[in-house]
Please model this.
Amino acid sequence: MTGENCLLCQIISNKIPSYKIYEDDLCIAILDVNGASPGHSFIIPKNHYPIIEQVPDEEMGHLFTVSNKISGAIFENLKVQGTNIFVRNGIPAGQQVAHFMINVIPRKENDNINLQWPPKQLSEEEMSTIELKLKDQIGSVGVSKQTPQIRKQTTPKPEPILDDEDDYFMNQINRIP
Amino acid sequence: MTEQQQMSEEQIKALQEKVKNMSPEELKEFQKKQCIFCQIISEKVQSKKIYEDEHVLAILDINPANPGHILIMPKEHYSIMPQIPNDEIAHIFNVTKSLSNSSLRALEAQGSNILVANGVAAGQKAQHFMVHLIPRKENDDLKLEVPQTSIPEKELQKTQEILARALGIKADQKEKIVPSIPLKAEKETVEADFEETIAKEEPTIEDKPEQEVPKKSPAKKKTAQKKKEEPKDKDIEEIPEQGADLDDIARMLGAK
Model:
């Protein structure tokens, strides 16, 4: 699968042309030519992992850090009012290519994108059953003394992405009661 | 929050003025007091906790898109994603990955959606950054639609130019890789068929020079290939009735 049949592997190896906007050792970011709007981007790991659970932790962290950066760049430069970061994992979730990727979708008000849902009504009992099943699978819940420390990065922090002037984003957020 | 709605215009103005004059620290404290999720984190408001560690809390959404809909949030109050340091982003999404794995197994889900809404226009409803993890099954009556449009070449070129410039795409400029944080309860979550991917303990790359990073990729590719080859002999078409098996999900995708 890797390379030969995977569309995204071929894009990564430049066998298929793409609109690349970012690249590093571990991932590339390209524009979706059939995106919801210009700026709709895919962040794709260079290694071939069909689903998210197969992506090793350090790559996972890196991919979402890059997604955050790209989300910031889209927000700052494309005159949009927000972004969605969206992953489809598995066919019922809408995944179409067997290579894990992250969507960053620029958003404007009334833009025809529907990522909202009518809440499903679950009884207290059903919720508790789900809670128990999940906890059972995950292990004990509670702050562990052995909780790993987040290692502080030695690299200088990146510039804050929002300047004072384009505070629309923050203002919008601050409007939420 | 109802308090705010009952305020007179004058009071609102006074409050706005007050907020405007606050120092960043004061503002943060103020936001924290107003934030329902901070109250959940400090256990002033009840919730169904699924996972917790020093930095992150995961709870069941009381208005779920699907049964098992989980909200993963940093304990620190951040309104939007750009405010969050990289190492915390990395941790939050690694927890999300781990929980996705758990919900596939525990709830017999066949997939999951991960969604972040940045901004009101994107559907953000709370002032506290969070990640939605929604387990998916076939015919689960949930539609998360992103329309496809055919974007003109000119638009694509223009957008590419703008974003590539903003992101500083250069061959010699490479993003530092954030070291991973091992997850609590990882051992319990991982099962035999999956240990290859997660249990593998790689040395952290934190202290090494950047050039060493690519060396790892061939090894990784090999594991990925190995994994891909295995399922080929098995029955590919069948949709796992009990969900839960990651290999099945990967295989279904491979079959497409």
